[in-house]
Each structure stands twice: as C-alpha cells, then as structure tokens.
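Journal club side-thread
Mid-discussion, someone asked how the predicted structure for our own chain would compare to the paper's figures. Pasting it here so we can look after the session.
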Amino acid sequence: MHHENENDTNLPNEVQVGSARRRWMKSVIALTIAAPFAVMSSLFTSTTEVHYSTSISLGNVDELFATRNWRELTVQKQRVLAIKTETGISVLLLKCTHAGCPLKVETNNIVCDCHGGTFSMNGQPVSGPPKLPLVALESRVTDGTLYTRIFGGG
C-alpha cells in the first residue's frame, strides 16, 4: 500500500513527476491564496506615523533674527525657513508641496522655480499649482534657543 507521504523513489518515473507536480501546484495555490491576505494586512496595519529626529538647535533666537524676521537654514541636509512673527516662531520645510522641488526665499514670498508656485512667508500657497501649505516642523524655544525636529528614518 502506497501513501503520498512515503518516499517516491521506488515508484515509476511518471508517478514521481506527477507527485512532484502535485506538491508544486499545492504550493502555488497556497501562495496564491495567502499573498493577497499578506498584502492587505500590511496595507491596513502599516501606520502613517511620521518619524522625527531628536531636537536640533537652530541657534539663539536673538542672533537668528537680529537683522530680519526670517532666517534660511540647512538642518540635516534639509533647507528650512525659521520665521519670527508677533505670535511666535515657525519653522517651515523649504520643499514645494506640489512636486517636492526646492524653494527660494525672496524678500516677501517663497518661490518654486519648477512650476511657478508662490507661497506667503507664513507658508500658505498664493499662486501656481501648490494647493497645500508648506510643512511646518515641530519647533520650540527653550532658554532663548530655537529647536526643531526634522523628518528622519526610523
């Protein structure tokens, strides 16, 4: 009496091939059934959580804004704009929200040379393709020093 789990080496070649083919087909069917569940599971269990680096000092507030109410800086290879207003200090990521192009800070506005988008100094879209405001980074002032957090891996 032969069982499928027994060693197939004593069987004729055609039977061995057929048995191997059945095992292969069972594996393919199992993967075909399991794969969509794995994909769906990863879609619904992944988070849109944003990871930040640790707090980074941008410098002394009085020194940063000694000559004007804004300061363009590079932090961890990303350009940011620190702005001081009557209501506080904001730090904006200088990356266009339309296509991710780098932005240029002018006297009264922020310009994207890629598609002609313009933002106000507080990061709101004024003209061109961008519909979303610039990304405002988490920031705080402690003991006269401005700190921010930049998006990072991890």
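Post-session note: The first helix runs from residue 13 to 45.
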